[in-house]
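Feature request disguised as a bug report, sorry. It would help if multi-protein outputs had a clear separator. Right now it looks like this:
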Amino acid sequence: MILRKIRGQAGEHRGGSSRWREYGLILLVAMLGAVALKTFVVEAVVIPSASMERTLFAGDFILVNKLVRGAPAVNCHTDTQSEA
């Protein structure tokens, strides 16, 4: 009975459009979170060939942790040989 009173008071000032706006916002946040996770944290990959046949078979699905991989290495070496 107390929950009905609370829901009734909170629901009196809400229109139908604000409910759909809230659902849309929740959906948008969920989609942005999923894209961010896939881009920066974890990615699903299918093994394309049998190169690691003892442990992974062609067609296996694995999840790659992108946080452990770290930043890509940058080649800063320049050619030190001078032209003569």
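(second protein starts here, but nothing in the output says so)
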Amino acid sequence: MLALESCIGFAAYGFWTAAYVFIASTCCCAGSYWPAPVQIAEFHSYALTNGRKQKPGGLSARTVLHFHRLLIEALQQAVSWQLRPTNPADAVEAPRAVDVEMKVVEEDQTLG
């Protein structure tokens, strides 16, 4: 079984790969193991501060938010299939995506 933090390493192969590895390793294949809300919150904190594999720093809040939404959907499916009584991701506040102002290049700054 992979720890939540170890799935961040798969982000180098793409967001959906990391999400699939997390869900498959911790929720589906591990049998009786289901992440508790506190583990999901710790994962968010870890991803925001140390989530990058190829350079120091964390993943963006928007990326972690996407991961959280996918996790909510996957765990909600487990509730629908009666594998779990509740969805632990519902008890965790998702990180807020930060809007970044777009930088516009003026015509005189272009090469052409």
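Even a blank line would do. Unrelated, but nice: DSSP finds three helices and no strands in the chain.
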